[in-house]
Amino acid sequence: MYKLDSHHHCWIYNPVEYGWIDDKMAIIRRDFLLGDLEREFSAAGIHAAISVQARQTLEETRWLLELAQSHDFIQGVVGWVPLINPRVGAQLERLAENPKLRAVRHVLQDEPDGYMLRDDFNRGIREVTRLALAYDVLIFERQLPTAIQFVDLHPNQTFIVDHLAKPPVKRNELSPWHENLKDLARRPNVYCKLSGLATEAEHANWTPEQLSPYIDAVIEIFSPQRVMFGSDWPVCLLAIEYTQWAALVSQAIRSLSPSEQARIWSGTALEAYRIGYPPGGQPAHTIEDPTGQ
């Protein structure tokens, strides 16, 4: 079965550009490059990935696109652009000349809750829609009600929720995260990444049983048709090894049909990011071939 990691990062670390990596994250205060990722893939049985921005700079977006162009297993890039800039449309057009640009992300979790409703920000999102790119939604669960308003402004835009909207795993609470996510999922243009969950728990003390209700809820809410696997590597290393997370997801979805598992492992991401074909030219999944083999 073809397996695609829909969410990973690369960086050449320095403390100024990655100031968000604080003292509690010392384990990831080093370079993480595609050679490191390939070793993780080999151990976990993953075939391809989508690279996601970790800095809010055009420089990083261009760098990720260059890496993707020279490495076939990077199927797409979720980059950053200054969405509130009046000239963002022209900037996006230039970047989108590289076919590996598949989506855009802004770190909304670090912004005031009303930021995503700003007129200038939404003007930028309309440029994303015009160019048929997806938009990754990075928020905390308390921002879900505002995110619903935001998504409703753009019914023709594909949205992908990162990290299950960061539920309150440390508190072992499902509500109101569950209700708000279910409301958001009523919009058929919204997908969700099964990623970044262990890091929302106590990093040294989580258990699979603690994470299971959140995984089950997301699959129930969105169905496998709109859920995709992601690792959030190397950030996930704060709480869980790459192979451990891949194995945990595999165990969590073992009762699903082969076609449903294939959707989560690759089909959903290929659809949402409009990629369609892995290296080699063969479809990753079809209705007629539900295993994707």
Describe this structure in words.
The structure is a single chain. This protein has helices spanning 34-44, 58-70, 88-95, 119-130, 144-152, 177-185, 208-222, 242-252, 258-272; strands spanning 4-8, 48-52, 74-79, 101-106, 134-137, 159-161, 190-194, 227-229. It has nine helices and eight strands. With 293 residues, it is of the alpha/beta class. Strand 6 (159-161), helix 6 and strand 7 form a beta-alpha-beta unit. Strands 1-2-3-4-5-6-7-8 form an eight-stranded parallel β-sheet. The chain starts with a strand and ends in a 21-residue tail after the last helix. Helix 1 packs across helix 8 (242-252).
SS-based class: alpha/beta
Low confidence ranges: 277-293
Radius of gyration over C-alpha positions, nearest whole angstrom: 18 Å
Count of alpha/pi helices:
9
- Give the total of beta strands: 8
- Describe the biggest sheet? 8 strands, parallel
In helices, the fraction of residues equals: 25-40%
Our measurement of the CA-to-CA distance between the termini, rounded to an integer number of angstroms, reads: 5 Å
What is the N-to-C order of secondary-structure elements (H for helix, E for strand)? Answer: EHEHEHEHEHEHEHEHH
Per the principal axes of the C-alpha atoms, what is the gross shape? globular
Task: Provide mean pLDDT, rounded.
Answer: 93
Fraction of residues in β-strands: 5-15%
Q: Order of strands in the sheet with the most strands?
A: 1-2-3-4-5-6-7-8
